[in-house]
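#struct-help
A.M.: can someone run this one for me? Single chain, 173 residues.
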Amino acid sequence: MKCTDLLIQDHKTILRALSVLEAMASHVETDQPVDGEDVETILRFLRVFADDHHQTKEESALFPELRRSCIAGEPSVRHMLFEHDQERSLVEALEDAMRTKKGAQFVQFAHRFVALIRNHVYKEDYILFPIVERNLSPEQDEKVVAEFEKFQIDLGYLADLRRLEWKYLRKAA
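D.P.: on it. Structure tokens below:
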């Protein structure tokens, strides 16, 4: 399996988490109850899975390999790193809004975060990853995949996501 295939699998999981966050924001907007622990759980999932696990794989394994290739100055790589920083800032803003019980800010930041991540995933899947596939040799790809294998995620985080999907998304279906 190619490194881009593995990252696309991560993207699918991240998009599931965004649907949960979106449902939570919708609950807050319509004055429906949202369990504070559930909000903490989804934000922890986004921080651990999307940032510590997924983005760190890109930043420590894929992007350095790209820098060594012919596309070191590729603007899309620099832009992805910029968006990673934006995403981290928005997670911090979401956590702050939750801690200070500012529902309107939570909703605003949740919508911004969801839009940013969905757009970011699209750009990686359809712009960056085709560039990666055209420019990384099979040996380079194998090297990146081997680095990715060093990143393991506690399956409890995925179980938490499934529980939150059941709780917040099944009602909407």
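A.M.: thanks! The domain at 3-168 is CATH 1.20.120.520 (Four Helix Bundle (Hemerythrin (Met), subunit A)).
D.P.: also worth noting: The helical segments are 3-29, 36-68, 75-99, 103-135, 138-148, 155-169.
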